[in-house]
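WP5 quarterly update. Target: Reverse transcriptase zinc-binding domain-containing protein. Source organism: Acorus calamus. Length: 311 aa.
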Amino acid sequence: MTRKTSWIWKGILDGLENFNQGTLWRLGSGKEIRFWHDIWVGDIPLKVRFSSIFLLARVKQGAVCLFRRGRDGARHWDVKVKRALSEVETEELQELLEVLRQGAVLTDCDDVVVWKSAKAAGFTVKKGYEWLRRGRPIQAITGTKSREIWGCKAPLKVKFFLWILYQRRTLTRSRLVRWNSGLEEACALCGEEAETADHLFTSCQLVRWVWDHMKEASGLDVQFRDLEGMWRAGKQMRMVGDRSVKAKMSQLLVPATVWAIWLSRNQVIFGGQRPYAENIWELAKNLIIDWGNYCVGARGISFQTDKLVIP
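Structure tokens (predicted):
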């Protein structure tokens, strides 16, 4: 990875590395297993167990089968190094070769990756999750905010957007202008201040009007001026341990308003529409009703004189 590698890709690779620590390979032909990096003989990768030899090895990325030389009846393991070895290094190389002679037999079968768990041979999502935790609290893996975002009843694409917003990676104009100096930085809705994430979703004058109406409709505390305050307000609407329809609906208020703001902003930029706070508010109300019907299963949700009514 480089400094320019996206944070999403870095997260995927980090997760893959953690996952791989819970797996090992069952040796077959040796064509799929990385000799130094995978766990296939013993409980740790050979690059860790024989670190001195790995640093001196000429081939660090080859498959297991590439380290097996000779023909039938005269095949042997061949680990080439860059220079002459010291006495200690020679002993380590001999130990490596002995481990290979005793515990590594190539066959014509395919290599198979298996889960380390001794209680059951198969892999399940639960076992993978337990491995990632390994005694750590859930907050150490995902964080409280992550659970709130991915656990709400909004559509998946909206959850993904909220997660991007929480990471402050949303492509607002202030962020885009860093890469293209020809772009206009002013907020697409009010045109008065730079379009940062904090401004667009919490302090823009049009957005403030929408949040004020959401407060009147639902009782949501909207006395915030930045994203941190917005997340805290959303958390207050979360009724811990309450799985009722009202509790689930309460979790949709912030996501629906944020999504309505983002869609309206894009309609102004790409659709040429004029920005009106009333349009954002109507869209937010429609999203809450639609998500309540299709994601929560709540029927009969409505706004009566701008008051949210949940049967």
